[in-house]
Amino acid sequence: MKTLVMQATPQALAYAKELIEAGEVVAFHTETVYGLGANAFDDAAVKKIFALKGRPADNPLIAHVHAGYDISALVETPAYTQKLREKFLPGPLTMVYPSKGKVSPAVSCGLPTLSLRVPSSKTAQAFLRAVGLPVAAPSANRSKHVSPVTAQHVLDDFEGEIPLILDGGTCSGGIESTVLDCTGEVPSVLRAGLVTREMIAAETGACEVYVPHAGERPKSPGMAYKHYAPSCRTAFFEEGMGEDAVRCYLAERGRGGSPWFLCEHAFAAAHPSFSSLDLGASPEEMAANLYSHLRTGERCATLLIGIEPHGRGGVMEGVRNRMLRAFGRA
Asked: Of the chain's two ends, which shows fewer C-beta atoms within 10 Å, N or C?
């Protein structure tokens, strides 16, 4: 199979619609990461996503719809979710609703819920309007590998295995959407992202952060398994362990290796003679750069040394979550 990489032209969108209707899988740009999408009503097509990624069969997918789609056909919508949709959508927020059971049960892995997202990316909106149906999509990478923020990243993982990648450029957000459980009286964050708990609480009056129990089935993507991991060797040092990280770097270089730090700007600036992938200074910069730098690190480093960034709360919760999981620490 030849994998085409195309801008979202009318010709490309018509081809994407044809592929989705035929049960194929299409990768597409969103503002967070690239998605690997299939018709959410087509059981065989949804299962094809799991097979392509090597994704565990109990890890639910998100159904993506365009801004004008009537979600009441798919889910029950608690009253407080209206405020959230008006404030944050289209955007990097996935909301988990009680499902009406209209899509393939494989999308939610048999759970009585459905995760829905309305991406703000122009490419994603054009694609979803063209196909006119919900598209089930996880991130367009091999399971546990670093999520893709460019079309080339998708091609690196799936060239020759999917027919089309809709290229919308580099994803601006950089980490996956916030996932919010809206099945209870108070919303609860299942996965941190760019729409923060504080932002949600400002609209609804309260917002919890869900803590999974040991052995529990994941209620949404990103809650279980090691994720976002580069293919090179890695080491990780918690905040305040900079001297230990430097010793690790020097030991790897002494063995003839090529160590690189993955760190926030302050650490990189304090160690200018060391090879560093500088995530930036703000939480938003770090979110935007994380996956791209992890992909660069696996190509250039024999040992990628992660340094836990400073800061807690807000967007930093999403950055820390992805970074800890990438280094196998969550």
From this structure: N
Domain total in the chain: 2
- Predicted confidence (pLDDT) per residue in 199-224, tens digit: 999 999 999 998 877 666 666 666 65
The Cα–Cα gap between 142 and 147 comes to 8
Q: How far is 311 from 319, CA to CA, in rounded Å?
A: 10
Q: What pLDDT shows up at residue 223? A: 60
pTM for the predicted model, two decimal places: 0.94
Instruction: Report the alpha-carbon distance of residue 42 to residue 104 in Å, rounded.
Output: 6
Neighbour count for residue 247 (Cβ, 10 Å): 12
Identity of the amino acid at 310: H
CB 261 within 8 A of CB 245: yes
CATH number, domain containing residue 285 = 3.40.50.11030
The answer to whether residues 88 and 170 belong to one domain is: yes
Helices and strands of the chain, counted as H and E runs: 10, 15
Do the Cβ atoms of 9 and 22 come closer than 8 Å?
A: no
